[in-house]
User: What shape does this take?
Amino acid sequence: MDKLATKYMGLELKNPIIVGSCDLSNSVEKIKRIEKAGAAAVVLKSIFEEQIMSEAKSLRSHSKHTEEYDYINNYIRAHNLDDYIHIIENAKAEVDIPIIASINCSTPSEWVNYIKKIQKHGADAIELNVFIIPGDINKDGRQMENIYFNIVRKVKKVANIPVSIKLSSYFSGLANFVDKLSILRLDGIVLFNRFYNPDIDIHKMEFTSTTTYSTSRELSQPLRWIGILSDKIETDLVASTGVHTGEDAVKCLLAGAKAVEVVSVLYKKKVEEIENILNDISLWLDQSRFDDITQVIGKMSKPQIQDPSVYERAQFIKYFHKR
Ligand SMILES: Cc1cc2nc3c(=O)[nH]c(=O)nc-3n(C[C@H](O)[C@H](O)[C@H](O)COP(=O)(O)O)c2cc1C
Assistant: This one.
């Protein structure tokens, strides 16, 4: 067995580096480059529920007849899906690494049927990107969580390939919520998604956005929650947000992640940076005298360490004491 090999959602990965969903994975040529750079799996660019709907809407405004509207609407849905299916089919023919389809969704509705087609054409797994801003003052936390549970239940009924969900950290009872998702027999949970965040330019009185790409400084959040949860739940956890180096990846594995997803680092540097990340993980394994990364995964999760409170310490008491 290769010393970097790991298993995520039942998929055999030759190493723990998965390229996360983004525009770097939206064509077969790009996926081939990702494989060549050494990644063990790739999550395709998401099919967005909103994207399909808004395209349908914009065309609808040019169309007067209901019949025509129906036709266009159906065409757009089919076309989007056909393009996506095309990428899955061709990628499966051209590369050996697992192809994980990604669906960005917020309702347990008709999109679920897309899964049948996606899996029929060879996707190895599906990652759900569910994010609903909890901004409705009439909906409490339980109601928000139920939307996620309903989506997962519906998807699990249709899917016969592994299913993961990529979450935000915006849940009041995150550990309990993740545990409940795990009980629904999800195969993987990706912690965490990173969003487009609004900002305001006060001089131009315009909306702008905060930085598109993460830095390693953002790693502490996935690290904390993977450390707290990895030993408590059955579902495999994967780290996302802030993994930029081999060292970052090793930290996530020590906390209990089965693998890591990388995106920003590949935009900031280039896709071939994966080779450096893998070399650094290998080097660290050798220097630390581990035979393979299965010995590393979870070695510093919450129950494995002498002072488990490090994962839950949220105040700066220790920091101020030292000064
Ligand atoms: C340009 C860009 C496009 C992205 N597109 C998607 C997407 O289509 N679906 C998705 O689930 N996440 C998408 N993401 C989020 C990433 O998959 C990832 O969760 C996030 O960037 C955090 O990982 P990182 O710190 O390695 O960048 C995108 C991120 C970037 C920077």
Observations:
- The first helix runs from residue 28 to 37.
- Residues 20-23, 45-46, 102, 104, 129, 166, 193-194, 212-214, 240-243, 262-264, 267 surround flavin mononucleotide (CB under 6 Å).
- The chain has eleven helices and 13 strands.
- Residues 6-322 form a domain with the TIM Barrel fold (CATH 3.20.20.70).
